[in-house]
Amino acid sequence: MIELLTPADMAAADRLTIAGGIAGMALMENAGRAVADAVVRRARRTAPLICVVAGPGNNGGDGFVAARVLRERGYPVRVMLLGDRDKLKGDAAEAAARWAGDVEPAGADGLAGAGLIVDALFGAGLDRPVAGAARTVIDAMNAGGVPVVAVDLPSGISGASGAVMGAAVRATETVTFFRRKPGHLLLPGRLHCGPIEVADIGNPDAVLEKLRPSLFVNCPALWAERFPVPRPEAHKYSRGHAVVVSGDASHTGAARLAARGALRAGAGLVTLASPPDALAINAASYPAVMVRAVDGPGALGEMLADVRLNAVVLGPGAGVGARTRELALTALAGERAVVLDADALTSFADESEALFSAIKARDGLPTLLTPHEGEFARLFRSGARPAEMSSKCDRALIAAVDSGATVVLKGPDTVVASPGGRISIAENAPPWLATAGSGDVLAGMAAGLLAQGMPAFEGASAAVWLHGEAGNEVGPGLISEDLPEALPAVYRRLFVDLGAWP
Fold first, then answer.
1. Which residues, at least 6 apart from 419, have a Cβ–Cβ distance to it below 8 Å?
2. Smaller CB count within 10 Å for the chain: N or C?
3. Average pLDDT of the segment spanning 345-353
């Protein structure tokens, strides 16, 4: 697993490291040297003037160390400080004392002539909007037209949420320490970071056992142990049977996309539960997808009495209203995995408690809610209170706890949150996934993995990652029909990486 540390977690990691016998000044020296190394790799051989903009805390201390190391390596360095040098405390004060050069007040004029800027103003722990002299300097760094190497996180970005706190540096690259922070992955923070280097500054991995972080980068290491790698003795019935509930004759496309996604994700069988008027359309779509006439909630309940049908997708193209609510409650009443998307979520906008009660009555059976931001706002505008939260992770987690379901809050930085507190953040989604039907395919892929026995959090996270990789496989010009067809190539690479290729 690749853990993410909140600013509070990182502060605790440093405290545990220091308590374990590694001096805080040693951590700062290592951090500053890592920044200096990054600057040297990027700086031109002509040794341009490097301007280090230091802040009043430990981030500024890292900047003072970097400035000293760069000067020792022969680079001309100018240091500017936001605040009073005499008011620096602790390790930051010591780092400043080890800098033998001049220190200028931070200001736009001081950046004149710089060939590269080190942004050491604020780190990941910034918790209030920047203003005054700090904002003036940030605006000047952005307007300078020269490379900016950010220390820990571009100044002005919240390490917890990725939000821009009034104004933020647009870095050319970022050097962070020990582990990345949520603000490195969540938008808009990720857009300000450039390539990110994670430097080892001496924090031992053992401190993670005490911190027990609950945030993770969404990658195969997070869910590989629960991923359903096909075995030679497997057959279609052992790989699960997913059901996708279709809309009426004029709204079948979304369900057909979901069905194809479930099939390509590995479900052994997939059936479209189709209104009678759409039966012919659905039957003509994909020969490998079965079709069964289902006219309303009662018929769906009769169909789902077959325990071999172990995963259901409902919502894509279903229509908004009471009928879809009843279909969803019918699906939730059985002992199977359920994925609710699109119209199924909007149908409960004014009936969220009925939905949440039905989910909680399932006593932990896999249930996924897969909203985009608009659907999320409609469904969780009351009891879950997430609209008041600034962090996408916070909003998704509160929604998961309040609903009892694993929540997949979609976007270029899709967050998966479980009621138990685990959260994954995706970083592999390309921009061309923003196309009609893409989310329907994702819902189907998730159901296909749940049908094969993956737990809700791992299955949802794996589906999101696979969806992003399929988008990268197709590239520009992608339409949603391409995504299922890209999965074989993605699976081939994944199984090789997992050592599971026959």
1. 400, 401, 403, 404, 405, 406
2. C
3. 97
